[in-house]
Amino acid sequence: MSRDRKSECLEDMRRRILTRNIVPGADLDEAALCAEYSLSRTPMREIFQRLNGEGLIQIEQNRGAKVSSMDLATMRVFFQTAPMIYCNIARLAAENRTTAQLADLRAIQQEFRAATDAGDAEVASFRNHRFHEQIGLMAHNPYLIVALRRMLIDHTRLSQIFYRPSGDDEAARVQASVAQHDQMIEAIESHDAEAAISLTMDHWNLTRDRLERYVMPDPLPTETHAPEFQGA
Amino acid sequence: MSRDRKSECLEDMRRRILTRNIVPGADLDEAALCAEYSLSRTPMREIFQRLNGEGLIQIEQNRGAKVSSMDLATMRVFFQTAPMIYCNIARLAAENRTTAQLADLRAIQQEFRAATDAGDAEVASFRNHRFHEQIGLMAHNPYLIVALRRMLIDHTRLSQIFYRPSGDDEAARVQASVAQHDQMIEAIESHDAEAAISLTMDHWNLTRDRLERYVMPDPLPTETHAPEFQGA
DNA sequence: ACGATACAATATGTATACAGAAAGTATCCG
DNA sequence: CGGATACTTTCTGTATACATATTGTATCGT
Strand C: which residues 45-74 of A lie within 7 A (CB)? Predict the structure, then answer.
């Protein structure tokens, strides 16, 4: 049925944007996507409106849609805002979670762990996204969850690199991250808001180092046979 | 031109929902609205998607759209979350505002004051909304502004009653509220984040008392000739 | 008379044709 | 040869007809 085609397309577009299968800033070709998902323009344009509302894409008047970019100014604000949102969400999740939601969280964590074990960076980062979104749902706060969702868009797109560890040290960090998820589940289960917040800060600090290193990597050696390039 | 019809409709729908011209929970009649704004169904449905993305309405599969309701559970969360969002927005606005934005804020405040002086509750609450949304823009934080916007939807719909003072005391509170806006402008202009936060808390406490009284008014007298109704 | 089912009416979702705007290209003039 | 303008092409926006789903109603059977 066509209903499935549409919602499948919507979900798939979300996944593709979050995993950078469609890169930040890319133009969306309406006609091509219609053909790809066997939809006519009307439902596809509706999907665009949805994605726009979720902050995944931007629609410009008479000029099509493009995937939200990740510019430097936004990254700065991202690192500034993340701890506050994440910690408050963690507190509320510990306080307000239902048992059904906790079971869902465990299931997501299991899938997340499998993806990290398999070394599939794309799937791992997407399941990490779902893990944190689920905690957001557990907070039962319609105001904060929209902020969390915006954060997770950029977080997930950045963290692609995190789950592609290039050495033993980085692999250990991924394992630590998975273990922290387990601890967060326990804290939320026992309604321990303080522990949930503390673990969330640890979790954030761990990933932050890695993300910052991605944004600002070690400089290339200045003394090579490549043309020299001095300072800014 | 049709472009104007569409964006005018979108803006007007926003205004009507925020001022409770269309009440919370009301069904939206697609055909009737199409006729009213001289639009065909396609752009009207696009407007619905936009409003849905902004949290003003909810769209249900094969079952039309309705204005977001304001249930008790949400109100509780509203009062819990508002101070955090408002204060953080105030801090960031003081830190990051541009002079152009400050000029806009002053213009909005002038219009707001005119509406309160004229005693027009509907226009006053809508312009109060624009005032606080403008401060949100000045924060330059794409994550927090979506949370702020969600808060302001409920805040504005609740505050209708605030700007319809039923006595000298309540009128004085409205005047105090207008004066606080002026002070907030000064704090933001001088990049004084601490003052902006402090004023925002005062402003919130003032309106909170009034809003809570609206949500939970003084009980009706129990001794009347109306049929008695004991306890819960 | 009550409930269930079939049918009709209405409302929602989709496809497509047409209209209008933006962008690219070619030609003309200086 | 360079720049501006007109034309063509392509993409975006809108209207409308059609398809599908839901809801209300009437009839039939028990």
Answer: 46, 61-63
CA nearest B89 in A: which residue? A81
* Strand C and A15 CB separated by under 7 Å: no
- SS3 (DSSP) at B26: coil
Contacts across the A-B interface (CB distance below 8 Å): 68
Amino acid at A70: M
What are the tens digits of pLDDT across the range A91-139? 999 999 999 999 999 999 999 999 999 989 999 999 999 999 999 999 9
| More reliable by pLDDT, B4 or A140 | A140
pLDDT digits (tens, 9 = 90+) for B153-201: 999 999 887 777 777 888 899 999 999 999 999 999 999 999 999 999 9
Contacts of B104 (CB under 8 A, 6+ apart): B134
A194 touches strand C (CB under 7 A): no
CA–CA gap between residue B22 and residue B36 (Å, rounded): 14
* SS3 of B36-71: HHCCCHHHHHHHHHHHHHCCCEEECCCCCEEECCCC
Q: Which of B77, B84, B150 sits opposite A140 (nearest CB)?
A: B77
